[in-house]
Specification:
The protein is mostly beta strands and 185 residues long. It contains 1 helix and 13 strands; from the N terminus they run αβββββββββββββ. It has a single domain, classed as Jelly Rolls (Sandwich).
Length: 185
Amino acid sequence: MKCQYSKNSFRPWESTLLVSIFLVISFILGNVANAGSCELGEFTREVFPNPNLRGAPVEKYCQPPGFSKKIDENWKLSGPSVGGGGGGKAESFHEPAYKVVSDNFSVRWAGTFDFAGGRYQVTTTSDDGIRVWIDKKLIMDDWNVHAPKTHRKNLHVPSGEREVRVEYFERGGGALVQVDWEHIR
């Protein structure tokens, strides 16, 4: 007996094909969506081609921990390279890769960090403007054009996972941003 299919008949290979296509698309979209999701103790770094953090970033990536400082960037008279993700999980919105943005740019770092409760000293050095928040509370605000300047602030931070956000802009000349915190008990 010869098996015949009508136009509306079920073909087993079609469901397999559809499931395979769905899985491939889900995998691709999942990787893109997770590119900006960083681990505990990592900053998401977003680079903007303007000094006011407006519009879409030209790059967003995870900046892995393990530096001597939490943030330590000295671009001198240059700026951040975009398009390569710095070796972390990246979403690049700029072509060609590794184009240097210099002058009139801004960067936002945001991440969740585990703090032991107690007194901390937060130290920033920047050329030009910088703002720092812990758990949506602004703790440092020097959003002005200036030569390299260091600020220190002692504050109590409750124990547990805390959101840290740093915003920086560079108007012209030297470009430097450093942020660190130390548990002082």
